Protein backbone atom coordinates (compact mmCIF):
# COMPACT_ATOMS: atom_id res chain seq x y z
CA UNK A 1 0.00 0.00 0.00
CA UNK A 2 1.03 3.58 -0.52
CA UNK A 3 0.45 6.58 1.75
CA UNK A 4 0.55 10.07 0.21
CA UNK A 5 -0.10 13.67 1.19
CA UNK A 6 -3.20 15.44 -0.21
CA UNK A 7 -2.62 17.97 -3.00
CA UNK A 8 -4.33 20.23 -5.50
CA UNK A 9 -3.63 21.60 -8.97
CA UNK A 10 -5.34 24.58 -10.59
CA UNK A 11 -5.98 23.41 -14.15
CA UNK A 12 -5.28 26.74 -15.82
CA UNK A 13 -3.23 25.15 -18.59
CA UNK A 14 -6.51 23.66 -19.90
CA UNK A 15 -8.17 27.10 -20.07
CA UNK A 16 -6.52 27.79 -23.41
CA UNK A 17 -6.97 24.30 -24.87
CA UNK A 18 -9.78 23.44 -27.29
CA UNK A 19 -13.06 22.30 -25.73
CA UNK A 20 -12.48 18.70 -26.88
CA UNK A 21 -8.96 18.53 -25.41
CA UNK A 22 -10.20 20.03 -22.16
CA UNK A 23 -13.21 17.69 -21.89
CA UNK A 24 -11.07 14.64 -22.59
CA UNK A 25 -8.42 15.64 -20.03
CA UNK A 26 -11.11 16.05 -17.36
CA UNK A 27 -13.23 13.06 -18.37
CA UNK A 28 -10.36 10.60 -18.26
CA UNK A 29 -9.89 11.30 -14.54
CA UNK A 30 -12.94 9.09 -13.93
CA UNK A 31 -11.31 6.07 -15.54
CA UNK A 32 -7.70 7.06 -14.76
CA UNK A 33 -7.06 6.50 -18.47
CA UNK A 34 -4.97 9.64 -19.08
CA UNK A 35 -2.34 7.34 -20.65
CA UNK A 36 -4.73 6.95 -23.62
CA UNK A 37 -4.62 10.67 -24.49
CA UNK A 38 -3.09 11.13 -27.95
CA UNK A 39 -3.03 13.69 -30.77
CA UNK A 40 -6.37 12.50 -32.19
CA UNK A 41 -8.11 10.98 -29.18
CA UNK A 42 -10.12 13.98 -27.91
CA UNK A 43 -13.05 14.21 -30.34
CA UNK A 44 -13.74 10.43 -30.45
CA UNK A 45 -13.59 10.33 -26.63
CA UNK A 46 -15.99 13.25 -26.18
CA UNK A 47 -18.37 11.94 -28.87
CA UNK A 48 -18.49 8.54 -27.14
CA UNK A 49 -18.99 10.09 -23.72
CA UNK A 50 -21.89 12.21 -25.01
CA UNK A 51 -23.49 9.18 -26.68
CA UNK A 52 -23.28 7.22 -23.41
CA UNK A 53 -24.91 10.03 -21.45
CA UNK A 54 -21.92 10.62 -19.16
CA UNK A 55 -23.07 14.22 -19.28
CA UNK A 56 -21.13 15.71 -16.38
CA UNK A 57 -17.99 15.53 -18.57
CA UNK A 58 -19.67 18.06 -20.89
CA UNK A 59 -19.96 20.50 -17.97
CA UNK A 60 -16.18 20.93 -17.83
CA UNK A 61 -15.92 23.54 -20.62
CA UNK A 62 -17.76 26.86 -20.65
CA UNK A 63 -18.17 29.47 -23.38
CA UNK A 64 -19.06 33.15 -22.84
CA UNK A 65 -20.95 35.40 -25.26
CA UNK A 66 -21.79 39.08 -25.49
CA UNK A 67 -25.17 39.58 -27.13
CA UNK A 68 -26.41 42.91 -28.41
CA UNK A 69 -30.15 42.56 -28.85
CA UNK A 70 -33.54 44.13 -28.27
CA UNK A 71 -35.45 43.88 -25.01
CA UNK A 72 -38.03 41.45 -26.51
CA UNK A 73 -35.25 38.98 -27.34
CA UNK A 74 -33.92 39.22 -23.76
CA UNK A 75 -37.41 38.60 -22.37
CA UNK A 76 -37.90 35.59 -24.67
CA UNK A 77 -34.60 34.06 -23.51
CA UNK A 78 -35.38 34.61 -19.82
CA UNK A 79 -38.81 33.03 -20.36
CA UNK A 80 -36.97 29.77 -21.13
CA UNK A 81 -35.92 29.75 -17.42
CA UNK A 82 -32.25 29.11 -18.20
CA UNK A 83 -31.26 27.70 -14.80
CA UNK A 84 -27.77 26.54 -15.75
CA UNK A 85 -26.75 29.62 -17.74
CA UNK A 86 -25.03 32.55 -16.03
CA UNK A 87 -26.76 35.61 -17.48
CA UNK A 88 -26.12 39.27 -16.76
CA UNK A 89 -27.58 42.34 -18.35
CA UNK A 90 -25.21 44.77 -19.99
CA UNK A 91 -25.88 48.02 -21.79
CA UNK A 92 -27.83 47.02 -24.91
CA UNK A 93 -27.90 43.31 -24.26
CA UNK A 94 -26.59 40.36 -22.28
CA UNK A 95 -23.52 38.52 -21.13
CA UNK A 96 -24.05 34.74 -21.16
CA UNK A 97 -21.76 31.96 -19.91
CA UNK A 98 -22.63 28.28 -19.85
CA UNK A 99 -21.16 24.82 -20.17
CA UNK A 100 -21.44 22.66 -23.26
CA UNK A 101 -23.96 20.52 -21.42
CA UNK A 102 -26.12 23.49 -20.45
CA UNK A 103 -26.12 24.78 -24.03
CA UNK A 104 -26.97 21.35 -25.48
CA UNK A 105 -29.88 20.83 -23.13
CA UNK A 106 -31.41 24.28 -23.46
CA UNK A 107 -31.09 24.10 -27.26
CA UNK A 108 -32.92 20.78 -27.21
CA UNK A 109 -35.69 22.16 -24.99
CA UNK A 110 -36.10 25.55 -26.71
CA UNK A 111 -35.02 25.11 -30.32
CA UNK A 112 -37.40 27.85 -31.44
CA UNK A 113 -35.84 30.64 -29.35
CA UNK A 114 -34.05 33.15 -31.57
CA UNK A 115 -31.03 33.91 -29.35
CA UNK A 116 -30.52 30.24 -28.55
CA UNK A 117 -30.69 29.37 -32.25
CA UNK A 118 -27.92 31.88 -32.95
CA UNK A 119 -25.77 30.57 -30.09
CA UNK A 120 -26.25 27.04 -31.38
CA UNK A 121 -25.21 28.07 -34.85
CA UNK A 122 -22.00 29.60 -33.49
CA UNK A 123 -21.14 26.60 -31.32
CA UNK A 124 -21.71 24.28 -34.25
CA UNK A 125 -18.78 25.86 -36.08
CA UNK A 126 -16.16 24.93 -33.47
CA UNK A 127 -17.84 21.91 -31.84
CA UNK A 128 -19.86 20.04 -34.49
CA UNK A 129 -19.31 16.80 -32.54
CA UNK A 130 -21.47 18.21 -29.71
CA UNK A 131 -23.84 20.34 -31.80
CA UNK A 132 -24.67 18.34 -34.93
CA UNK A 133 -26.35 19.90 -37.96
CA UNK A 134 -30.10 20.40 -37.63
CA UNK A 135 -32.94 21.21 -40.02
CA UNK A 136 -33.16 24.72 -38.63
CA UNK A 137 -29.57 25.63 -39.61
CA UNK A 138 -30.50 26.96 -43.06
CA UNK A 139 -32.96 29.64 -42.00
CA UNK A 140 -32.57 32.78 -39.90
CA UNK A 141 -34.71 32.26 -36.77
CA UNK A 142 -37.51 34.80 -36.44
CA UNK A 143 -36.64 37.47 -33.89
CA UNK A 144 -32.91 37.12 -34.61
CA UNK A 145 -32.63 40.13 -36.92
CA UNK A 146 -30.52 42.92 -35.51
CA UNK A 147 -28.83 40.61 -32.96
CA UNK A 148 -25.07 40.95 -32.66
CA UNK A 149 -23.40 37.97 -31.01
CA UNK A 150 -19.74 37.70 -30.12
CA UNK A 151 -17.85 34.95 -28.33
CA UNK A 152 -15.55 36.31 -25.61
CA UNK A 153 -11.97 35.18 -25.26
CA UNK A 154 -10.64 34.17 -21.86
CA UNK A 155 -8.67 37.43 -21.75
CA UNK A 156 -11.87 39.40 -22.35
CA UNK A 157 -13.61 37.53 -19.53
CA UNK A 158 -10.64 38.25 -17.25
CA UNK A 159 -10.92 41.95 -18.11
CA UNK A 160 -14.64 42.26 -17.27
CA UNK A 161 -15.54 44.55 -14.37
CA UNK A 162 -15.11 42.60 -11.11
CA UNK A 163 -18.79 42.00 -10.43
CA UNK A 164 -19.19 40.31 -13.84
CA UNK A 165 -15.74 38.67 -13.92
CA UNK A 166 -16.42 36.77 -10.69
CA UNK A 167 -19.62 35.32 -12.16
CA UNK A 168 -18.37 34.53 -15.66
CA UNK A 169 -14.83 33.32 -14.93
CA UNK A 170 -14.83 29.58 -14.23
CA UNK A 171 -11.82 27.77 -12.75
CA UNK A 172 -11.18 24.03 -12.48
CA UNK A 173 -9.14 22.49 -9.66
CA UNK A 174 -8.01 18.88 -9.45
CA UNK A 175 -7.77 17.59 -5.90
CA UNK A 176 -6.00 14.45 -4.71
CA UNK A 177 -7.63 13.87 -1.34
CA UNK A 178 -9.41 11.23 0.71
CA UNK A 179 -13.00 10.22 0.03
CA UNK A 180 -14.33 11.95 3.14
CA UNK A 181 -13.18 15.26 1.69
CA UNK A 182 -14.73 14.58 -1.73
CA UNK A 183 -17.96 13.56 -0.05
CA UNK A 184 -18.13 17.05 1.45
CA UNK A 185 -16.98 18.81 -1.74
CA UNK A 186 -19.80 17.36 -3.81
CA UNK A 187 -22.34 19.08 -1.54
CA UNK A 188 -21.53 22.37 -3.31
CA UNK A 189 -24.37 22.31 -5.83
CA UNK A 190 -23.40 25.04 -8.28
CA UNK A 191 -20.16 23.15 -9.08
CA UNK A 192 -19.49 20.52 -11.71
CA UNK A 193 -17.54 17.44 -10.62
CA UNK A 194 -15.68 14.52 -12.12
CA UNK A 195 -14.24 11.90 -9.82
CA UNK A 196 -12.03 8.84 -10.13
CA UNK A 197 -14.38 5.88 -10.14
CA UNK A 198 -13.77 2.98 -7.78
CA UNK A 199 -16.29 1.10 -9.95
CA UNK A 200 -13.95 1.10 -12.94
CA UNK A 201 -10.47 1.38 -11.37
CA UNK A 202 -8.98 -1.96 -10.37
CA UNK A 203 -6.17 -1.07 -7.98
CA UNK A 204 -4.52 -4.46 -8.38
CA UNK A 205 -3.51 -3.44 -11.93
CA UNK A 206 0.04 -2.39 -12.80
CA UNK A 207 -0.91 1.18 -13.61
CA UNK A 208 -1.98 1.67 -9.98
CA UNK A 209 1.27 0.06 -8.82
CA UNK A 210 -0.76 -3.04 -7.83
CA UNK A 211 -1.55 -1.33 -4.55
CA UNK A 212 -4.20 0.77 -2.87
CA UNK A 213 -3.23 4.37 -2.13
CA UNK A 214 -4.35 6.08 1.07
CA UNK A 215 -4.18 9.72 2.13
CA UNK A 216 -2.10 10.39 5.22
CA UNK A 217 -4.55 11.36 7.97
CA UNK A 218 -4.10 14.88 9.31
CA UNK A 219 -5.25 13.71 12.75
CA UNK A 220 -2.45 11.32 13.81
CA UNK A 221 1.27 12.07 14.11
CA UNK A 222 3.39 9.64 12.12
CA UNK A 223 4.83 7.03 14.48
CA UNK A 224 2.16 7.57 17.16
CA UNK A 225 0.10 4.65 18.52
CA UNK A 226 -2.99 6.00 16.72
CA UNK A 227 -1.11 6.25 13.45
CA UNK A 228 0.10 2.65 13.75
CA UNK A 229 -3.44 1.50 14.48
CA UNK A 230 -4.71 3.37 11.39
CA UNK A 231 -1.90 1.98 9.22
CA UNK A 232 -2.64 -1.57 10.33
CA UNK A 233 -6.31 -1.13 9.44
CA UNK A 234 -5.40 0.13 5.96
CA UNK A 235 -3.04 -2.82 5.40
CA UNK A 236 -5.80 -5.23 6.36
CA UNK A 237 -8.28 -3.39 4.12
CA UNK A 238 -5.94 -3.65 1.15
CA UNK A 239 -5.46 -7.37 1.78
CA UNK A 240 -9.22 -8.02 1.88
CA UNK A 241 -9.82 -5.82 -1.20
CA UNK A 242 -7.30 -7.83 -3.23
CA UNK A 243 -8.79 -11.11 -2.01
CA UNK A 244 -12.23 -9.97 -3.14
CA UNK A 245 -10.87 -8.92 -6.55
CA UNK A 246 -9.81 -12.53 -7.18
CA UNK A 247 -13.48 -13.44 -7.60
CA UNK A 248 -15.35 -10.10 -7.82
CA UNK A 249 -15.55 -6.90 -9.82
CA UNK A 250 -13.96 -3.64 -8.61
CA UNK A 251 -17.43 -2.27 -7.81
CA UNK A 252 -18.04 -5.21 -5.49
CA UNK A 253 -14.57 -5.25 -3.94
CA UNK A 254 -14.64 -1.50 -3.25
CA UNK A 255 -17.31 -2.01 -0.60
CA UNK A 256 -14.49 -2.58 1.90
CA UNK A 257 -12.53 0.57 0.99
CA UNK A 258 -12.56 3.29 3.69
CA UNK A 259 -12.76 7.09 3.80
CA UNK A 260 -8.95 7.28 3.86
CA UNK A 261 -8.74 5.92 0.32
CA UNK A 262 -7.06 8.31 -2.13
CA UNK A 263 -9.29 9.72 -4.84
CA UNK A 264 -9.07 12.41 -7.50
CA UNK A 265 -11.80 14.92 -8.18
CA UNK A 266 -12.09 17.90 -10.51
CA UNK A 267 -14.20 20.75 -9.16
CA UNK A 268 -15.27 23.37 -11.72
CA UNK A 269 -17.22 26.52 -10.86
CA UNK A 270 -17.14 30.28 -11.11
CA UNK A 271 -15.17 32.53 -8.79
CA UNK A 272 -18.25 33.53 -6.79
CA UNK A 273 -18.77 29.88 -5.84
CA UNK A 274 -15.06 29.38 -5.08
CA UNK A 275 -15.29 32.34 -2.71
CA UNK A 276 -18.32 30.73 -1.05
CA UNK A 277 -16.51 27.37 -0.72
CA UNK A 278 -13.51 29.05 0.91
CA UNK A 279 -15.78 30.94 3.32
CA UNK A 280 -17.24 27.62 4.52
CA UNK A 281 -14.28 25.25 4.22
CA UNK A 282 -11.38 27.20 5.73
CA UNK A 283 -12.85 28.25 9.10
CA UNK A 284 -12.11 26.43 12.39
CA UNK A 285 -15.59 24.82 12.13
CA UNK A 286 -14.61 23.01 8.92
CA UNK A 287 -13.25 19.47 8.87
CA UNK A 288 -9.42 19.50 9.42
CA UNK A 289 -8.64 17.38 6.31
CA UNK A 290 -10.68 19.87 4.28
CA UNK A 291 -8.91 22.88 5.81
CA UNK A 292 -5.55 21.23 5.19
CA UNK A 293 -6.13 21.54 1.44
CA UNK A 294 -8.49 24.53 1.21
CA UNK A 295 -6.38 27.06 3.12
CA UNK A 296 -3.39 26.85 0.73
CA UNK A 297 -5.73 26.71 -2.28
CA UNK A 298 -7.54 29.83 -1.10
CA UNK A 299 -4.22 31.69 -0.84
CA UNK A 300 -3.24 30.63 -4.36
CA UNK A 301 -6.63 31.49 -5.86
CA UNK A 302 -6.64 34.92 -4.19
CA UNK A 303 -3.23 35.60 -5.67
CA UNK A 304 -4.13 34.45 -9.19
CA UNK A 305 -7.75 35.58 -9.54
CA UNK A 306 -8.25 38.50 -7.14
CA UNK A 307 -11.22 36.94 -5.37
CA UNK A 308 -10.78 38.33 -1.89
C1 LIG B 1 -18.91 23.27 9.23
C2 LIG B 1 -19.89 22.51 8.38
C3 LIG B 1 -20.64 21.48 8.93
C4 LIG B 1 -21.57 20.77 8.15
N1 LIG B 1 -22.25 19.74 8.70
C5 LIG B 1 -23.14 19.03 7.96
C6 LIG B 1 -23.87 17.93 8.50
O1 LIG B 1 -23.71 17.58 9.66
N2 LIG B 1 -24.74 17.26 7.72
C7 LIG B 1 -24.98 17.64 6.41
O2 LIG B 1 -25.81 17.02 5.74
N3 LIG B 1 -24.28 18.67 5.85
C8 LIG B 1 -23.38 19.37 6.57
N4 LIG B 1 -22.68 20.41 6.01
C9 LIG B 1 -22.91 20.74 4.59
C10 LIG B 1 -23.71 22.06 4.43
O3 LIG B 1 -24.98 21.98 5.02
C11 LIG B 1 -23.88 22.40 2.94
O4 LIG B 1 -24.61 21.36 2.28
C12 LIG B 1 -22.56 22.54 2.21
O5 LIG B 1 -21.66 23.29 2.98
C13 LIG B 1 -22.80 23.25 0.86
O6 LIG B 1 -22.89 24.64 1.05
P1 LIG B 1 -24.16 25.55 0.72
O7 LIG B 1 -25.42 24.78 0.89
O8 LIG B 1 -24.03 26.85 1.45
O9 LIG B 1 -24.03 26.03 -0.74
P2 LIG B 1 -23.69 25.46 -2.20
O10 LIG B 1 -24.34 24.16 -2.49
O11 LIG B 1 -22.22 25.60 -2.41
O12 LIG B 1 -24.43 26.55 -3.05
C14 LIG B 1 -23.97 27.91 -3.20
C15 LIG B 1 -25.16 28.84 -3.10
O13 LIG B 1 -26.16 28.47 -4.04
C16 LIG B 1 -27.45 28.65 -3.50
N5 LIG B 1 -28.17 27.37 -3.58
C17 LIG B 1 -27.73 26.22 -4.19
N6 LIG B 1 -28.67 25.29 -4.17
C18 LIG B 1 -29.72 25.82 -3.54
C19 LIG B 1 -31.03 25.34 -3.20
N7 LIG B 1 -31.41 24.09 -3.53
N8 LIG B 1 -31.85 26.16 -2.56
C20 LIG B 1 -31.49 27.43 -2.23
N9 LIG B 1 -30.26 27.95 -2.51
C21 LIG B 1 -29.41 27.16 -3.15
C22 LIG B 1 -27.26 29.17 -2.09
O14 LIG B 1 -27.35 30.59 -2.15
C23 LIG B 1 -25.85 28.80 -1.76
O15 LIG B 1 -25.24 29.70 -0.88
C24 LIG B 1 -21.75 21.12 6.77
C25 LIG B 1 -20.99 22.15 6.24
C26 LIG B 1 -20.08 22.86 7.01
C27 LIG B 1 -19.25 23.96 6.38
SSE string: EEHHEHEEHHEHHEHEEHHEHH
Number of helices: 12
Domain module count: 2
Alpha carbon gyration radius: 22 Å
Q: Order of strands side by side in the largest beta sheet? A: 2-7-10-8
Low-confidence segments: none
Quaternary class: single chain
Q: So what's the overall shape? A: globular
Give the DSSP E fraction (strand runs of 2 or more residues).
Answer: 15-25%
CATH hierarchy, class of the largest domain: Alpha Beta
Percent of residues in helices comes to 40-55%
Number of E-state strands: 10
Which hetero ligands occur in this complex?
A: flavin-adenine dinucleotide
Classification by helices and strands = alpha+beta
CATH domain topology of the largest domain: Gyrase A, domain 2
How would you describe what is shown here?
This protein is of the alpha+beta class and 308 residues long. The chain has two domains: 2-16 and 169-305, 2-Layer Sandwich (Gyrase A, domain 2); 61-168, no CATH class. The chain has twelve helices and ten strands. It has helices at 19-31, 42-52, 71-78, 100-109, 114-126, 154-158, 162-168, 179-185, 225-245, 250-253, 271-281, 288-305, and strands at 2-4, 7-10, 62-68, 86-90, 93-99, 148-151, 170-178, 192-195, 213-215, 262-270. A four-stranded antiparallel β-sheet has the order 2-7-10-8, sandwiched between helices. The two termini are 40 Å apart. The model has no long low-confidence stretch (mean pLDDT 95). Bound molecules: flavin-adenine dinucleotide.
Amino acid sequence: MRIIEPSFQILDELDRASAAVRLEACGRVCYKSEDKIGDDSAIPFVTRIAAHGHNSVLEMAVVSYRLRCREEAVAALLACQPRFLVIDREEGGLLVTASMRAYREIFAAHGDNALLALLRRDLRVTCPYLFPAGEEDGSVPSGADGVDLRRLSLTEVDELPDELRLRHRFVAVRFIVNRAVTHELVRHRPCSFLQESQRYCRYSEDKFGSEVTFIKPVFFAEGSAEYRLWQGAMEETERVYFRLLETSTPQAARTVLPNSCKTEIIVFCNLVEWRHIFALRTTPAAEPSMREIMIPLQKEMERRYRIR
